[in-house]
Structures are given as C-alpha cells and as structure tokens.
Amino acid sequence: MSAHRPVPPGYVFEPQEVQAVYRAIFERRDMHHFAGGQVPPGQLRLLLEAAHHAPSVGFMPPWRFLRVTDAVLRQHLHDAVEEERLVTAHALGERENEFMRLKVQGLLEAAEVLAVVLADGRDKHVFGRRTPPQMDLASAACAIQNLWLAAWAEGLGMGWVSLFGPASVSALLALPPGAEPIALLCLGPVDSFYHEPMLQQQRWARRAPLASLAYDNRWGQGREVFDSANDAARGDGSR
Amino acid sequence: MSAHRPVPPGYVFEPQEVQAVYRAIFERRDMHHFAGGQVPPGQLRLLLEAAHHAPSVGFMPPWRFLRVTDAVLRQHLHDAVEEERLVTAHALGERENEFMRLKVQGLLEAAEVLAVVLADGRDKHVFGRRTPPQMDLASAACAIQNLWLAAWAEGLGMGWVSLFGPASVSALLALPPGAEPIALLCLGPVDSFYHEPMLQQQRWARRAPLASLAYDNRWGQGREVFDSANDAARGDGSR
Fold first, then answer.
1. How far is B79 from chain A (nearest CA, A)?
2. Which domain holds residue B150?
3. Any CB–CB contact under 8 A between A98 and chain B?
4. Residue B111 belongs to a domain with what CATH number?
C-alpha cells in the first residue's frame, strides 16, 4: 500500500493478497501436458463462475461454455486440432519440423475439456459493440483469463488451444449459425508446471521486453515511464 | 486444497492466496468515476508488466500500450468517445435517454489513460493465428484483464472504454496502417468502488445466470455439472 494514494474503505487487499494476485498473473503458463485425474464438480463450477465474472460490454454476455465429457467427441476435437496443426506446420515453411516437435494440445489427457463459444444472435446487442464490433471476443477472452488465473491458483493447469478450423469444430459441437468457437480449453491436474513458457523452453521464441511495446501519447514517441529511474514508488517494474 | 488432486510441488497457493485471486476476480468492476490523483511510475510499470504477462499465441505479442499524458490529446480522445456515445444512443432507439444518463468514460478524471493497440504487421505471424485469425485481439484482451485484476488488488479503479470510432482514435494516436485501437483504459484512484456493476445499479441490465450459458458436449444439451447436487467438492459454485 503506497502513501501516494488513498484506498477506498472496505476494499483494501492485504499485501499478501496483492502478491497472490501478481503471483497468479506472473506464474500462469499455457499448459499442454496433463496428468489425467479429475476436477471436482464444485471446483469446476467455481472456476466457471470466475470466468462468468469477466467484463461483458453491455452485459451481453457473449460466452457459452460446452463441457466435453463424451470421449468420442473429444477424440474428434483432438483430430480437428491435429489436422490444423499439419496445415499450420506446412504454412510455416522452414520452421515446419521444429513446429511439429511442439506439443500444442492436451485434449486427450486433460481431466476436462471446455469449448468456449461466442453465442449466436450477438448482432442484436448495440451498446459498446456498434464500434468496435469485436468486443464480444474481447469479453470472452477476459473470461478465459479469469478461469486461467483461478485454475492456476487452485493448482490446476490450463491450456488454450486455438489451433483448429472453426468450421470443423462448429460442426462437431453442433453450433447454430452465427455462433463461433474461440477456444478449446484443456484443464486439470498436471505432474509439473512449466517454469517458463513452453515456447521459450523449446527456444521457439522469447518474450519481447515490455519497454519496446510502450509509447507516450502517440505511436513511436518516447516512453518516459520506462526511462524514469529513482522514483519513490514501490514495485519498480522489476520481476 | 482438495484431496481429489495432487498439486505439483512448489506451486501450492495457500488457501488465503487462492481466495485473494477469487476476490480480485469477483470484486473487479468496470469503473467510470475517478478521483484524479496519480499512479506512481513504479506501480504503473508493474501493472503494465502484469498485462505483458498475458498469453500471447506464438509469443507475438500483439499489444502496444500508449500512455496518454498530453492534456490536449486526452481531451480529444474524450471528445471522440462522446461523439460515438451520441451515435450509439441514437442507434438504441427507445432506450436512448436512459443510455445517455449512464457514465461511460472517465477520461478527463482518471489519473492515467492508457490506449491499448493491436500492432501493425500482425499478418506475418502464422502459428496459432492462421485460424482463427483474431487470436491477437483475444491475447490483448487477456493482457487488459491482467492489468485490471492487478489494479483492483492495488486498490485502483479501471474502466475499459471501447465506445469510439477506431478511425478517429487511430488518427489521434498517429497509428500506422494495420494497427487497431481496442481500448482506452482509465486507471487511477477512486473515491469508492461500485458494489455491483454500474449497469446493474442503474437497472440497465442484469448478469445472466451462468447455468443458462453452459452445455454438455453439444450446443443445447444438458448441463450436468450444474444439476449435480451433493458432490463432495469445496466451493460449490455459490457466490
């Protein structure tokens, strides 16, 4: 708690609570290795409630959750991802072989598979969606991030698989016209968490430094907040 | 910690840490009333680092942050939102007057205004973006949600303003072709937090019950996890 700002009464997070939130945010990883097992129904409902408490412009809400319990359906979804993986690998050209060594899904091993879908009939919502219209996807992504952070805190791994052809997945899930699948979430116990992002472990790519992605006021201009040393604030951006 | 699942060593969140993460998720609100003041630079950097630790398919990352410190620019952004607000109000028809009473932005009062922009040149990224291509927006939305939860834990309010014409905002921020503004974030101290979502307080809309948004396996089918009572799990989805 800094002396610089008053915290409204009743909303103070204790320092260890603040750290717990940062801890979930900084430690969270996109997991593709799972250990089977199960997620108890009460815990799954709580995780879905966490997702459901995401921001939703005008309170649509745009998200729908399909819990995949049918083993045959799960296998078909796995196959749809595998099919897209081969096409993506080919599109990558010279990195094709390297890409093919990455594990990009855990649909067959994860305790739970949840498909996240943007609902049909979203056109009738106007408030906050006239422009830009894609705020429905943004809201649903926030819901997924909520679920991810809560799952991480609960000691469960989660992976967001988006490597699929929307048409195949829509057909498998019997989605109505206008609905769009945006994620196949693999969720459940893991044997161990990645200590750094898998793509970094596998030397596929590294995280870009934040300061290179920030500007002051207009594109390409300065970044004073990252240049200023010796300010009295806590935290200091380093971790 | 449930007996149902093993938690990988070294990654255990203490029960109060788990609760802190849920607390941030369930209490977070979209704030449009701010109390001026300031966000210390070190704290702002830490919040941006939290955003930067969002998932980013293939590690693009798609997000850019523009910190608006120029008072004239801030006024122009405010005016762009106001302009879109009038157009949206008109499009709402019979709810126009009701809508016009809602406060939809705090650009002039918030300590900080951050524009979040999808970078130009995103087309060259293939992995995880061939289909569906809009995963760049999804990643950036996760970054915003991270920032939001961290700000909330720090006792700061944040509001996501998306009510603007992208062309006007792009021009004001001097964005290059291909870059897209997705959010004007208002961030800073507040006098009091909304105890329930503002749209609910103002009787604009209510949050839909989660169970109505979930299905088993295929669209429209069952929702066993919400029907099953008496399971031994903790949490139980109620809050």
1. 15
2. 29-194
3. no
4. 3.40.109.10
- Residue A70: phi, psi to the nearest 5? -80, 120
The verdict on A177 touching B (C-beta cutoff 8 Å) is no
- What number is the ipTM of this complex? 0.88
Q: Do strands B112-118 and B63-68 pair parallel, antiparallel, or not at all (unpaired)? A: antiparallel
Find the CB nearest A23 among B17, B30, B139.
B17
Total domains in chain B come to 1
Closest chain A residue by Cα to residue B100: A127
The verdict on residue A175 lying in a domain is yes
Q: Which of residues 209-228 of A touch B (CB under 8 A)?
A: 210, 213-220, 223-226, 228
Of A194, A166, A210, the C-alpha closest to A27 is: A194
Domain membership of residue B16 (yes or no) is: no
Q: pLDDT by residue for chain A (239 residues), tens digit each?
A: 344 445 565 678 999 999 999 999 999 999 999 999 999 999 999 999 999 999 987 667 899 999 999 999 999 999 999 998 888 888 888 788 887 888 888 999 999 999 999 999 877 655 555 556 788 999 999 999 999 999 999 999 999 999 899 999 999 999 999 999 999 999 999 998 887 776 666 666 677 889 989 999 999 998 899 886 545 443 443 33
Q: How many CB pairs under 8 A join A and B?
A: 421
Which helix or strand (DSSP H or E) is residue B117 part of?
A: strand B112-118
What does pTM read for this prediction? Answer: 0.88
Question: Does a structural domain hold residue A102?
Answer: yes
Token representation of residue A116: 């996240």
For B159, which residue in chain A has the nearest alpha carbon? A55
- Residue A133 inside a domain? The answer is yes
* Nearest chain B residue (CA) to A96: B127
Pairing of strands B214-216, A63-68: parallel
